[in-house]
Amino acid sequence: MSDWEMALLPDLGLDALLERVDEVGECLVWNCYALDGLYPQWRIGGRGGRLWNVRRLLWLVVRGPIKTGCQIGVKCNTDLCVHPDHLAARTRSQACAGKPKAPDHRIRIAVASRARAKLTADVVNAIRASTESCAVLDERHGLSRGYSSKIRNGTKWRHTGGHFDGLGGRRAS
After folding, report:
1. Which fold has domain 3-96?
2. Second label for 64, Cα 20 to 30 Å away, from 20, 127, 155, 168?
3. pTM score, two decimals?
4. 82 contacts 54 by C-beta, under 8 angstroms
5. Which residues of 109-137 are buried (b: 16+ CB within 10 A; e: fewer)?
6. Does residue 159 sit in helix, strand or coil?
7. How far apart are alpha carbons 154 and 152 in whole angstroms?
8. For 72-87, how does the pLDDT look when each residue is reduced to its tens digit (9 = 90+)?
9. For the chain, where do the domains classified as CATH 3.90.75 start and end?
10. What is the enclosing helix (H) or strand (E) of 26?
11. Which positions ≥6 away from 61 have C-beta within 8 Å?
């Protein structure tokens, strides 16, 4: 948060904030509105007031300005925790590290990788249809040893095209 946002920081009594949390173990759990049920929000200044992210607000009050490009999250596993000692400033990539990617995101990554790959969909289909040994196919197409076998068994170049793929239907013989 920049200096101009620090200037917008309201005179905040922490007692008003403590009325809106429940103490659960070592955490202070927000019991009011949370955006998407995960991000504690607090409107300060009545109906016309600004909606603040409680974690960012607490960080500003307790620790001061936030570095550009940083998000404020929690180190504990409690979704609505707002305890100042549990807050952590990190970049978006640090916050997303280790989280599983959604299936559509994995597909976009695969499509982008295939666009840069030396193999094309036509070559992959030819490998799948071929009756030659995998060692011959690997050598012909300049692939590492065993790669064409992985293409054939679906470990590499998995097919993701049709609407009904993955539903367990049988292929026509």
Report:
1. Homing Intron 3 (I-Ppo) Encoded Endonuclease; Chain A (3.90.75)
2. 20
3. 0.55
4. yes
5. eeeeeeeeeebeeebbeebeeeeeebeeb
6. coil
7. 6
8. 988 888 889 988 899 9
9. 3-96
10. none
11. 9, 12, 14
